[in-house]
Amino acid sequence: MGEKQPAVRLRNISKSFGPVQANNNVSLDINRGEILALLGENGSGKTTLMNMLSGIYFPDSGSIEIDGKPASIGSPKDAFDYGIGMIHQHFKLVNVFTATENIVLGLRDKGKFDLEAAADKVRSICDAYGFDVDPHQKVYDMSVSQKQTVEIVKLLYRGAEILILDEPTAVLTPQETDKLFAVLRNMRDDGKAIIIITHKLNEVKDISDRVVVLRKGEYVGEMKTAEASTQEMTNMMVGHQVTLNIDRPDPEMKYRMERIRVSHLTVTNREGVTKLDDVSFSAYTGEILGIAGISGSGQKELLEAIAGLQPVESGSIEYNVDDNVSEQLIGMDPLKIADMGVVLSFVPEDRLGMGLVANMDLTDNMMLRSFRNGLSPLTNRSQPKHLAELVVDELEVDTPGVGTQVSKLSGGNVQKVLVGREIAAAPTVLLSAYAVRGLDVNSSYLIYDLLNRQKGNGVAVIYVGEDLDVLLELCDRILVLCGGKVSGIVDGRTTTKNEVGLMMTKLGGGEAS
Amino acid sequence: MMHIVKRKEMPLAQAMAIRFGIIGIALIVCGVITALMTGLNPIDVYATMIKGSFGSPRKVWILLQEVAILLCVSLALTPAFRMKFWNLGGEGQVLAGAFASAACMITLGNTVPGVLLIPIMLVAALAAGALWAAIPALFKARWDTNETLFTLMMNYVATQIVAYFVIVWEVPKGSGNIGIINQSTEAGWLPKIANNKYMLIVILAVLLTAAMYVYLTYSKQGYEISVVGESPSTARYVGIKVNKVIVRTLLISGAICGFTGLLLVSGSAHTLTTSIAGGRGFTAVMVAWLAKFNPLIMIGSSALLEFMESGAGEISTIYGLNQSFGDILTGIILFFIIGTEFFLTYRVVLSKKKEDTAHV
To answer: Residue A454: CA atoms inside 13 Å, Cβ hemisphere, count?
Structure first.
């Protein structure tokens, strides 16, 4: 035995789902008192690997040792018994319960059930690591970051020694991220083993001690964070040299005109909750307008209102055909908007559930917007097939053919199909929501490039994004939403991440402090 | 430990070979069960089933007509099912069409000339079936009611209406039966082709199958149905009016059911009873699912079910077996067919958990 026994030792782990090899012969060690970043592109097998550690999947082959002893983790309960806890991207909390009730839920402690004692224990855990949780607060009253905190405390309460966090910062503001990282450091110093799954390099630099990189399900290498640059990490993650700069050509000022003017837009959803509150802004031709905000701040409703999919309470959305003629878009459905001659393309957040039909092939998906063309009651598939082939060709979609169901494609390729179709319509307005979510580095840059080309063609591009680094590099102006209100519009070239981050929470939203 | 893993895609030829192989295995299992439970020679039993279905030209024609009618109901349900609108009201919609046809035959049989009567019946039957399906469709479109329960309930309403009118029109009074309608004049009876009263129904079913296949696969409306079924929010996103498509599709679905009701009354039974639909509204659900909503494959699945049905009837008379014995055999065969679909998509892996850890 050496000086230090790793907390977890994975050896030659493989796992496949049908034809997909999610993990192939992965071996790695996880140490106590260390924060390990598991880095890799989407689909590189990070989450699958960790799911095998937390008992959700069982490896096809390979072995797992916990503290030097062979372990067989067949269920999440087994994982708990080994002291392994995982925090998933989607929280698993009961909304109408308090923090403490959620934390003790499912525990079978001997003796009398004492909620107050449990609350005290929760408090002492919070004090030890610097969490900010009120044990008696109901989950529905909590912000996303508070819910995440409850999840973490839940694991610690159950005595977890090995904590896995799956993309924990995806839903947090920069300030909340800093807070999370501070408690993670406390937990590390307390001797816990912490694994954080991520693809954000800045955060890896910031928080981790060691980085393990996976690519296409295989272990490609590891490095000490202190000794590696983000460029090195990217190269290892992608497998070849990439440039990390996003282009931002200056808008063509000569032909610049106001294309869309939104004034005093208010939207209430079915439950009567105000999702957009008196929103006013303009989008110009030849410009990328970024929209930043914590998820659920009204981004979806804003885009859908412009696209004619969201009933509006009050306000107006004007589309300027030229300097003199303008059309009102409120009260129009997508078909009527198209009939007016307004070519408005929309890349929605939910690609397979809204932008495309998952179980149809590429050709049929290309036809979604155009199938009504012509007088015949029968569809004509030759044009859409041609378009599908063109998109596959130009955007390098990786597919066996245009007759393949889009649900069988990877996330990046699905997005290429969707963006390709929307751009093929030669739009004057391009709305996009989280256009690069879940995409690998290469596909993301391809999308940025496509958006920039649309901007160059004089299209008014509206880009709803979640990665502030990208918004700051790509967009000409950034509109920041907070709880359905516009908290400001800033110049993308001069603003800072900190400024935008503060504006995201300025108006309160779900956060009281 | 055992877990389930999704399979790699299988070539169609291999999948079909497995499906037919499974039917073979199912027949062997049925044979063993027959021998154990009844002491009869299973080969004889199968031979009797085949003889019962194909033993004479008349039996073959009856079987074809039954297949045709079941196929029509299945085709009627298919557009709704493709849209993921679970229309379980086929029974009631067929009954509505049958009722409308019979009503026309009884009330107009002696006054309207034959050439006009059948078109009037056709319009009435289509409208009645369509109405019966449109009511739940409108509620679904407007208030998002549960279509499964609603269509199911509509069946009982239809049955009670027919029960009422059977008493109103009963001949002779007090018999509780309508009897053969227009027996002497044959007014409103579908014409025979080449002196064969079954042929017309079979031809109509074939035409309907082809039409439905083209409608669903190549028409713009068929495409809209698929989009709405797969993803209503995608449909809205591209400007398809989901509610309109729901109502339109159910009008079609109900109208074809109504048409089948006309075939039953005017083409084969020439009377009206509460049980004239004979459970086909439900059997058709199975036919459509077995064929994965493909009209062409439905010819095969409806033929299989009707063959089992008529064969079961035959063995129960010949061997004096309980009527249900045929149903048991049908159930076993369906169980195998449906089970196969699972194993064509997934495979079960027994993991060598013990060895894995032991060797470390």
So the answer is: 32
Contacts of A236 (CB under 8 A, 6+ apart): A213, A215, A220, A221, A223
Give A458's Cβ-side CA count (13 Å radius). Answer: 11
Q: How far apart are the first and last CA of chain A?
A: 50
Please indicate, yes or no, whether residues A60 and A132 belong to a single structural domain of this protein. yes
State the complex-level ipTM. Answer: 0.83
Neighbours of A132 (CB within 10 A): 11
Across the interface, whether the CB atoms of B223 and A367 are under 8 A apart is answered yes
Nearest CA in chain B to A10: B360
Shortest CA distance to A508 belongs to which of A299, A297, A313? A297
Q: Where are the alpha helices (DSSP H) in A46-173?
A: 46-53, 76-81, 99-104, 115-129, 144-157
Q: Are strands A429-433 and A344-347 parallel, antiparallel or unpaired?
A: parallel
A512 occurs within a structural domain = no
Query: CATH no. for residue A146?
Result: 3.40.50.300
d(C-alpha B210, C-alpha B205), whole Å: 9
- A121 and A222 in a single domain? The answer is yes
Position B1 scores a pLDDT of: 60
Choose the final residue of a domain: A425, A450, A473: A425
Q: Does A357 touch chain B (CB under 8 A)?
A: yes
Of B80, B67, B88, B113, nearest to B263 by C-alpha is B67
Q: Is A372 on the interface with B (CB under 8 A)?
A: yes
| pLDDT tens sequence across B321-358 | 777 888 888 888 888 988 888 888 787 776 554 444 43
Contacts 24+ apart (CB under 8 A), A366-370: A366/A391, A366/A417, A366/A421, A367/B223, A368/A421, A368/B227, A368/B234, A368/B238, A369/A421, A369/A425, A369/B238
A99 with A122: CB under 8 angstroms? yes
Q: Which residues of B touch A62 (CB under 8 A)?
A: 356
Average pLDDT over every residue of A384-406: 91
Domain encompassing residue A316: 258-343+426-506
Residues of B in contact with A63 (CB under 8 A): 356-357, 360
Average pLDDT score over chain B: 89
CB-CB contact of B242 with B236 (8 Å): yes
Residues 6+ apart with CB under 8 A from B180: B270, B271
**In total, how many domains does chain A have?**
3
A17 neighbourhood in chain B, CB within 8 Å: 5-6
Count of C-beta atoms within a 10 Å radius of residue A459: 24
Q: What are phi and psi of A430, to 5 degrees?
A: -125, 115
Q: Which residues contact B40 (CB under 8 A, 6 or more apart)?
A: B34, B319
- The one-character DSSP state at A356 is S
Please state, in angstroms and as integers, the Cα–Cα distance from residue A388 to each residue in A108, A404, B224, following that order: 56, 11, 19
